[in-house]
Amino acid sequence: MEIKRKHLFSFIVFILLALTKIYSQSMQQHLEWESDPNAFEYELEVKGTGKTSFDLHETLTENYYDLKLPAGTYRFMVSVYDYLGKLSDRTEWISFEVIKAYKPQIEDLAYNLTVSEEGENFTVPVKTSEVTKNTKAILKEIDSNKEIPGTIELSKNAAGEGTGSGNNESNEIVFNEVPKGKYKIIVQDPSGYKAESKPLEIVKTTEEAIALAEKNPSVYKIEPGIKKQYEQKKAEEERVMLQKLKEEERKRQEAERIARQEEEERKRQEAERIARQEEEERIRKQKEAEEEAERAAKLEAEEAERLARLEEEERLRKQKDLEEEEMRLAQMEEEERIRLQNEQEEEEKRLRKLAELSKPKKDIYLSSQFGIVYNMVQDSDKKIFKDFYMDKFRYDAGFRLTAVPLKLLWWKFGFDLSLYSTYPSFEISQGAEEGGASDLYEVMFMPMFTQANLIIYQQLVRNKFYLAFKGGVGLTAFLNSVTYIDSLRPQNNSLSMFWNYQFGASSVVYITRSCVFEVGVQYINCMIKEMELGFLDSYMCLGYRF
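User: That's the sequence. What structure does it adopt?
Assistant: Structure tokens below.
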């Protein structure tokens, strides 16, 4: 048998994780290793190392063992013996550590209102005890449950390994980039023990903190140093601001003096510039007048030539435009004639279709019926029904005429007449021996139904879908035909008619204005004196609405 090292390693990790959650020695530890089907027994040895005094030697038939260990360092080894009592495998000594758990404590916050600067570390002055370097600090927002991890600054037993019995303490916890809001401080030991503080509100500016503390002094308590530092800071800012205003006023007066001197110099330069511009303008105008006279003479000659050319081009263009306009008008007249003709034909079609659609549809429709009939016989003494007609499925086909004269908002009332027959007919071949001769015959039995029903329609979808309930009376005709084979006896035909009553339900859908689809089920009971004969008919109809 081989104890796989990867399983043992996983097992040891599990042991260490489990044992770090122990707060007292009353908790039980569970040692377990991979079993071997060929193992007869296991030998477990657990020993303390260093200052830990412990020695355990157990022979087991199972691959686990429960024990209680105090905090300390240990090692263990497992030996496996087969059915002959011989050692078949043994692990190496494997070391592990049991770490003591602490139950953190948080004293009440001295101040429940403080200031956190944007983008800087935020230090909460809160006293904690029973903490180590492995203890986690969390700032939890009360409304959103968002958690911000922090660092506990230990003030005693800085090693914080959690292996001794010292009372580790801390006077402050550091968090990074805390947004303003309402929080609780949670201090949690790796074992799972934790402590929570009372609510703490964090703001981003000292002004906010002071305003809240002054508005609700019974609710918020702020550090005295914060308000004092704020007042000193405001006084320094006011002093700096006053000095800055004085310096700005001095600069403004000096700037006004310089501006006056610059304005006087600017006016002098402006007067010289205007005189110079006037002389330049006189010379320019004189030169422009001479150039203008020369240009006017040249333009007059060019204009006369241009006008003559334009007159000839205009004459040719008008002649061409006249010809094109005549052709365009002729084409437009032809297109207009064709368009009017098409519009007239479309309008005639639309009026015919509108007249067809505007014809009121009456709720009278003729339907073809197709269905499946299940035959039921109750209290029958007639052998022919028991032997050949009981509990058999048949097809049926026929016609149905429906009229709905009374209509309300969500209900309609009407009646229908139907005529249909089952198919195929029953055919029975029978042989009998009389005097040594064979007398063969066939029996055909075919029921036909004629019904009249009253119908109540409930509208589910307006003018589209209805649920119908119907019931009524009718006649059931049984056509019996007996045909003898190889005999001189003639064919014997008989027709029996009985009253019946029926009831059922169906769904009616107006597919289009003229097409109706119906699917339903009905029960038909034939009132025969000697017996009760019933039919369960599942059917569907497709009809034309007049």
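The first strand starts at residue 29 and ends at 32.
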